[in-house]
Amino acid sequence: MANWREDDVDPRELFSRHSRGLLTGFLVAAGLLLLWSTVVFIPAGHEGVLFNKLNGKVSATTLKQGWQLRVPMITNVIIYDCRRKAYTMSMRPEEGQIQGQSDTNWSPTADGNAVGLDITVWYRIPRDLAGKVYLNLGTQAWCEEQVIRPIIRNAVRLSVAKYTAPELYGPKRTEVQEKIKELIDKSFKDDSFFVLDGDGVFLRDVHLTASYQRSIEEKVAAQQAIQRKQFEVEQAKQEAQAIKIKNDALAAAKSYLQLRTIEMLEKKDFKVMVVPQSQGLILNLQEGK
């Protein structure tokens, strides 16, 4: 058994001496924690939805940006981003809303082919409607996957089905974008949970299937071959015309040479004359002998 010395500190005395300070520190910490649990910060452009855990009701008033009060342990605050949000579906894995995989919209066309549309939709939650969205739909992440995404895919499929693949890839691209925008806007207005923001819909790119792309390349190659043949035929015609013009010019020059020869012979003022053998002209130059 340890021997107790008079100069040793008694733990009970030490605790009694500092208990008041420890209790005060504990009460202050508890008070600060309680005070912190009664406030919530709502970022700019966001709204908070108050959900009562006891009765399961959602407050009709949404919390605006800044520091707001709530009842700790009883109410839960669900924060919604009410700014412009972009939902992108793209073939590139790093661009789409679903990261790490291709997420383009493959849809059948009017001519029996299929095209993939990369699209971005700008939308937002209208002011003071975050509570309605939470009560009828759910969290913002859930809404994106279960509401926004199906609306976009449905609008794309309904619009693409009215056009052929060449039209979508070429002259009708802007028109298709407007059709998709109209359908999405109508779906949003029917539910009144979301609205298109700004320009709303952007058709980023149109992709063709590998087989259809190959058929286009073959068609282009065939057309180029036909054009090349037509060029060769036209070139041959031009060369033949050039040869004919040259021959006609040579024939005309030969006739002129023969005429000049006869005129010179009639003058009889020369002793010797060289006549091309090709002219077929035989004359007696020994006249008078």
How would you portray this structure in words?
This protein has 289 residues and is of the alpha+beta class. The chain is 47% helix and 19% strand. The protein has six helices and eight strands, in the order αβββββββααααβα. Strands 5, 6, 7 and 8 form a four-stranded antiparallel β-sheet that branches. The chain has a two-stranded antiparallel ribbon with strand order 1-3. The longest helix is centred in the C-terminal third of the chain and has 58 residues, at 210-267. The chain is rod-shaped and about 150 Å long. The relative contact order is 0.08.
What topology does this entry show?
Elements: H1 11-37, E1 39-42, E2 46-52, E3 66-69, E4 75-81, E5 85-89, E6 105-108, E7 114-124, H2 130-136, H3 140-160, H4 165-169, H5 173-191, E8 195-208, H6 210-267
Antiparallel strand pairs: 1-3, 2-4, 5-7, 6-7, 7-8
Helix pairs in contact: 3-5
